[in-house]
Amino acid sequence: MTIFDHSPRARWLLTLSAFGVACGQPTPPSEDAAASSDATTDRVVMSDASAQPDAAAMDVAALPDSAPDATSVPDATSVPDATSVPDAAQDASVGAYPAGPYGSNEGQTLEDLQIEGYLNASGAALSTRSPFGPVSMQSLRQTGRRFALVHTSATY
Amino acid sequence: MAARNAEVNAAGGLLVEVVTEGLSGLPTRANLDAWVMAHNLSLTTLKDVTGRRAFMVLGRREISYVVDLRTMRIVRKVLGDTSGATSTATLNATVDQMLTLLRM
Description:
The complex is a heterodimer. Chain A is α+β, with helices and mostly antiparallel strands.
């Protein structure tokens, strides 16, 4: 068979090759690529002005198309809060917060308290120089540290 | 607590101060800032919020919890001074226990 062969099979192969060249890849898209394409479609839908936007969607919509990972691109419009760890990379691999039941005695699981203050994991500077904002127990997990000593105090 | 911060950081731990009570109950941000300045704290310093959930869960001063951050399981709970005194003996002992866990 040559490329000048006009059989139906040859025409189909030529069409397929042309499609591959146009897409920048020699083979048809794999299932993973198809999934990625679906995700792109989802982002487009989420950024639709007629849709109900949420903060996450707005962040994604603000990213350039070439950004490979939404979490790696700072959002210039966001206000930094204490949940960001400026001096240590946040560890996204910690996963979801452990499920209950919760308690406050030895052997029990501490609940995901939502409080506020200064998350200062590095200890490089006075805490009031860190951003003030909401901090959760999940935020502590995301510092990547193994153990925390949580100490209660009072200002009388 | 501040004096042990570098040592704990180097070992992979995290010191967290939670102000659960202020002069009139719920601590304010001003209370927290004053606390940081008074003790020259360069560690994670937090305060309770409306609803006082931290106070209900963690309790009044002085209690130290050593928490495994992977599981959030409380591995040590140590009651310190509740008289209003400012001894750091119990806290230092608890820091030592956490350092032992970190070095295992």
